[in-house]
Design brief:
The structure is a homodimer of 116-residue chains. In chain A, a hairpin with a 2-residue loop joins strand 1 and strand 2. By secondary structure, chain A is α+β, with helices and mostly antiparallel strands. Chain A is 54% helix and 21% strand. Chain A contains four helices and four strands; from the N terminus they run E-E-H-H-H-E-E-H. In chain A, helix 1 crosses helix 2, helix 1 runs antiparallel to helix 4 and helix 2 packs across helix 3. A two-stranded antiparallel sheet of chain A has the order 1-2. Chain A has a two-stranded antiparallel ribbon with strand order 3-4. Chains A and B meet through strand 1 and helix 4 of A and strand 1 and helix 4 of B.
């Protein structure tokens, strides 16, 4: 069936009304995982180091366990490493997006089929 | 169980990448239904008449059937009336929000319980 209407939704995990995780933040975490550095991740995200670092600080402050460990000095100054918990967060969020996407597809069938 | 983390998501129905319906638009339609006028609805929404009218025009243009009929002249100049299809759209969207809310609650149980 041709389905021109689509349902979309941006997921966000909040705590006390503050954003904890959304797609952008998870993308930043993935870049830190990939490059081992908050600085390189900020460049990949086309944001300033300050912006990236502010997000990382907020994440760590809200999180029940540390998400990113900052590594000072050394040849890789400004380095950052995800904790095992941070790595698990990425996987959990991706799984959530996948499940939610499946759900939206079924919602499209049920709801949108009524009016197109 | 104490659940400090919450999942939220803003639903939107799109067509070819253009927004057709979201919570704000449905709120506007509800005000038109209530007051019988695009002008009064725009005031309730704290937007200009021009903004409200632009949304109504877009809705009608994207929709397979007219959503709002504009009524010119008379004592109630600038009036607007929802078509039966427009009324159905409101109900369908509300139902979608309700179902989706139930789903997000179950997703919270499944996903967030892993990391809090």
């Amino acid at each position: 069936m041709y389905q021109p209407f689509k349902i979309s939704a941006k997921l966000e995990i909040n705590k006390n009304g503050n954003c904890f995780l959304d797609e952008k933040r998870v993308e930043l975490l993935k870049h830190i995982r990939q490059g081992g550095s908050i600085l390189s991740a900020s460049k990949e995200m086309k944001m300033s180091y300050q912006q990236a670092w502010t997000i990382v600080k907020q994440l760590n402050a809200i999180s029940p366990l540390p998400v990113v460990i900052r590594q000072r000095g050394g040849s890789n100054g400004g380095g950052g490493m995800l904790t095992p918990f941070g790595l698990k967060l990425i996987d959990s969020f991706d799984e959530m997006i996948r499940l939610h996407g499946d759900y939206l597809s079924s919602l499209e069938e049920n709801i949108l089929s009524c009016f197109i």
